[in-house]
Amino acid sequence: MDPEECIDCGACEPECPVEAIFEEDEVPDEWSKYIPLNYKFFGQEAP
């Protein structure tokens, strides 16, 4: 998901069949390294 288009409504979280969607501040530590990669994928700078 494009991090700039996300409005943090949480509607997508229960729809994910593998429970892999989190609000940015609730991403488990072992997956937090992917936050900057997600921004980079969409051509944006991580906060």
Please tell me about this protein's structure.
This protein has 47 residues and is mostly helical. It has one domain (1-47): 2-Layer Sandwich (Alpha-Beta Plaits). The chain is built from one helix and no strands.
Key phrases:
Alpha-Beta Plaits, mainly alpha, 47 residues
Short summary:
The protein has 47 residues and is mainly α. The protein has one helix at residues 34-41. The chain has one domain: 2-Layer Sandwich (Alpha-Beta Plaits), CATH 3.30.70.20.
Topology, element by element:
Elements: H1 34-41
Find the count of extended strands (DSSP E, 2+ residues).
0
Fraction of residues in H or I helices? 10-25%
Shape: globular
pLDDT < 50 stretches: none
- Report the radius of gyration as a whole number of Å: 11 Å
- The number of helices is 1
Give the tally of structural domains: 1
Beta-strand residue percentage:
under 5%
For the record, the CATH architecture stands as 2-Layer Sandwich
The CATH class label is: Alpha Beta
Average the pLDDT over all residues and give the rounded result: 88
Counting helices, strands and paired strands, the structural category is mainly alpha
SSE arrangement, N to C: H
